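A quick word before the example. In earlier lectures we treated sequence and structure as two separate objects. From today on, think of them as two lines of the same record. Here is Biliverdin reductase A written that way.
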Amino acid sequence: MAGVIGIVVVGLGRAGKARVRDLEMKVLGESVVLRGVISRRKVDEVTCLTWEEALARNDVDAFVISTENSTHEEYVRKVLDHGKHVLVDYPFCLSAQSGKDLYDLAGSKGLVCHVENIALLVPLHQQFKQTTKSKAVPLQEGLVRLDARLSNDWIADDSCAGFPSFAGVGDLECMMDLFGKLTLQEAQYVYEPDLRSLTCKFSTSDDRPITWIRERKRDGKARERFQEFKFEDGSVLTLSPTGPPPPPTPGHKGLFARDLELFVAEIRGERSHAEITEEKKLVLDGLQLAEDRKIVVGRSGFSKHGIKITCDSEGKTTNREVTAVDTEEAELLRN
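And the structure line, produced from the sequence above:
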């Protein structure tokens, strides 16, 4: 696609604001233009549009979806149904089958459907990948952990953010990007008034263990991520970034701008089929892995004690502690 690409940003959270900033600064040049935003928030600096207005405009070619996770599937489908390209922040959607269906819909219409994961673009991740691929010795064990505060924002609400395995699917994509296919061995979810904790134990294709923990506490840290991978030769790779990515320095593209650049390049036919296919496979594999241990927890009755469930790789419950569940029983669903 030659010429100007007009873009509408949907949602003005952290990611949405970053997209708007980059487009207004024209970090991708004069041929990528912000046409407006769709948001519940009142803003004076940019043109605000309704869905109907934005979808009907001939000068709007693409949408960027930066809203609550639970809305992604609906909004992506709406955009594709109206013949527009779409970039959506991860998670793509909240089921593996929905992800496949949306990719198929985009393909049938000749449209681009691109899923963000800026963690894959972080220089340290790229360095990690290069180092792990070049190592002559195997991984011994790995740990990936997120500690965050359990706030009243939507990101801490499973009904908006999705179950933690989906809300954190970007981590799964990064792990698979480094070590290939992962298999679930055990999963445990703790749901209490002041605590949400998911712990999953994976194995790589050569049976090396990786533990993944996502924990939110009411009085916990604002946000802290930690990754550590130990190898048989005694070497250790550690990554511990904190907080969101900083604004880009003048004259440089930040992570969100680089992701937007990939989206625009795909619209213009400037990316290889092999690269795009690999990217989509990683997204779908991540969703499938997230769904393999999806634990659906009844919301009523967890005001005092909460729940613990442990499952094996077959999705069967091997150990369970349930207390004060009024009307709904927790169950582990393996699709």
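Notice the following. The mean pLDDT is 84. We will return to this example when we discuss secondary structure assignment.
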